[in-house]
TrEMBL record:
Domain of life: Bacteria
Keyword Protein biosynthesis: no
Organism encoding this protein: Mycolicibacterium tusciae
GO MF entry, a single one: hydrolase activity
Protein name: Limonene-1,2-epoxide hydrolase
Limonene-1,2-epoxide hydrolase domain ranges (all copies): 10-122
């Protein structure tokens, strides 16, 4: 499979959009089995089982999620997405978090997903510890 600019962008946009539907299998379906997910500055998570577990924890902690793309740049196999992530926690707290994600795509799957954001800001707003 050729990872064109357009295919790479569509994969990432579909993944980001899938959070609103809250279906774990749809969300995880974009990832390669050996993918790495890194919420900087915490430790990277390696492999789809670990990624599935952290995404499940996120879904269990909030009742609403929208990952809103501000700016997106794509090349074959590489997508950079500046976002504002909106979450509503189960206790009603609202989180609004600026994030920049870097996605490496290979053979139509995300193989590396790195998010850069202010960890203290996220934890303060959400009460969720990463």
């Amino acid at each position: 499979m050729t990872d064109t600019k357009e295919a790479s962008e569509k994969l990432v946009r579909d993944f980001l959009g899938s959070w609103e539907g809250r279906d774990l299998e749809t969300i995880c379906g974009a990832f390669a089995a050996d993918a790495v997910y890194h919420n900087t500055p915490v430790k990277p998570i390696e492999g789809i089982d670990g990624i599935r577990a952290i995404f499940r924890a996120f879904l269990d902690a909030f009742s609403y999620a929208k990952l809103d793309v501000v700016t997106l740049a794509a090349e074959p196999g590489l997508v950079l997405a500046e976002r504002i992530d909106y979450f509503t926690m189960n206790d009603g707290r609202k989180v609004e978090l600026p994030v920049t994600g870097v996605f490496v795509v290979k053979n139509g799957e995300i193989t590396r997903f790195t998010d850069y954001f202010d960890l203290a800001d996220f934890e303060r707003q959400s009460g969720f510890k990463l």
